[in-house]
């Protein structure tokens, strides 16, 4: 590598490091506030590091049953919804990737139209209402069962698989479901992990569907509960618990809830990172 190339690599690395720091700083600020005392927060002393270190904000959260209930709802939606997403997306992407299946181009055009023209809120609400899904967890899962964007990525990955493997399975007498289960899916771990992460993050961070379709507060996911705390300062049971703790501020509790809502995805991502990167690269260059 010549000198210009080395200088470019150094400049590029420094620039990306600075951009990464800019993205991390807000999270560090929230994290610092969640571990700081109310006096430090109210005085504006907290920047990137905790001031007057305390765990009382997390003690308040752990004592609030409504936050635990919302956390459980989010886990159910994320795990169950992601499983349904992957099953349905793979079931549709596989036949659309095989050249011997007729009408696949027509189906792909219809799917592409849904990416360009999305149905407005009111028709979606009426459909959910007529299907009697209001105030059920299915209303948070069924409408987003298949993402057109994720479908195209998965189909692109399936197209790049060697057709000889599928032909060999058919010669051995395997049907389409057997071929997909025993041949296609074992080779598709990278793209399945990538799409699973996409779907899981979408389910975990979603609050708009709950805002539209859920009126029962017992079915609120964690992000919806977080929205109540941050926007309307509605601490619910945690508000009454503040009286039992010294040196606690609503702002500190809000920051602690934000950290709790982000933590599961941060923990899961490193285990899927290698599959995530590989799946995105293969799915993007195969046609």
Give an overview in words:
Residues 71-266 form the ABC transmembrane type-1 domain. It is a multi-pass membrane protein. This is Protein LplC. Keywords: Cell membrane, Membrane, Transmembrane, Transmembrane helix, Transport. The structure is a single chain. The chain has 287 residues and is an all-alpha fold. It has 2 domains: 3-42; 56-285, MetI-like (MetI-like fold). It contains 14 helices and no strands. Helix 4 runs antiparallel to helix 10 (189-205), helix 10 packs antiparallel against helix 14 and helix 12 (222-232) crosses helix 14. The radius of gyration is 24 Å and the shape is globular. Mean pLDDT is 80; it is low at 283-287.
The main sheet comes to: none
Q: Give the fraction of residues assigned to helices.
A: over 70%
Mean pLDDT: 80
Structural class: mainly alpha
Terminal-residue CA separation:
32 Å
Q: What is the number of helical segments per DSSP (H or I, 4+ residues)?
A: 14
Kindly provide the name of the CATH class of the largest domain: Mainly Alpha
* H/E element order: HHHHHHHHHHHHHH
Task: Indicate the CATH architecture of the largest domain.
Answer: Orthogonal Bundle
Counted beta strands: 0
Q: Overall 3D geometry?
A: globular
The fraction of residues assigned to DSSP E strands is under 5%
CATH fold call of the largest domain:
MetI-like fold
Rg result: 24 Å
The tally of structural domains comes to 2
Main location: membrane
InterPro entries: MetI-like, MetI-like_sf
GO biological process, one term: transmembrane transport
Family: Belongs to the binding-protein-dependent transport system permease family.
């Amino acid at each position: 590598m010549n000198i210009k190339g080395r200088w470019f690599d150094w400049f590029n690395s420094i620039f990306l490091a600075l951009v990464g720091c800019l993205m991390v700083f807000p999270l560090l600020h929230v994290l610092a506030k969640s571990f700081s005392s109310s006096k430090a927060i109210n005085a504006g002393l907290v920047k990137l590091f905790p001031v007057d270190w305390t765990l009382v904000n997390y003690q308040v959260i752990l004592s609030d049953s409504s936050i635990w209930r919302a956390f459980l709802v989010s886990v159910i939606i994320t795990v169950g919804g992601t499983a349904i997403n992957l099953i349905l997306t793979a079931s549709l992407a596989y036949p659309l990737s095989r050249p011997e299946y007729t009408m696949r181009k027509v189906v792909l055009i219809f799917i592409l139209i849904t990416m360009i023209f999305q149905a407005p809120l009111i028709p979606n609400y009426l459909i959910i209402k007529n299907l009697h899904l209001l105030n059920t967890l299915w209303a948070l899962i069924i409408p987003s069962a298949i993402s057109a964007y994720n479908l195209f990525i998965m189909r692109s990955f399936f197209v790049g698989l060697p057709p000889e493997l599928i032909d060999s399975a058919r010669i051995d007498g395997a049907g389409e479901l057997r071929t997909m289960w025993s041949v296609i899916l074992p080779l598709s771990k990278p793209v399945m992990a990538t799409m699973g992460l996409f779907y899981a993050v979408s389910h975990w961070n979603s609050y708009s569907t709950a805002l539209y379709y859920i009126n029962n507060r017992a079915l609120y996911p964690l992000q919806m509960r977080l929205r109540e705390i941050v926007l309307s300062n509605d601490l619910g049971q945690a508000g009454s618990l503040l009286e039992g703790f010294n040196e606690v501020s609503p702002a500190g509790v809000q920051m602690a809830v934000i950290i709790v809502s982000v933590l599961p995805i941060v923990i899961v991502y490193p285990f899927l990172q290698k599959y995530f990167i590989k799946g995105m690269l293969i799915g993007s260059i195969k046609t």
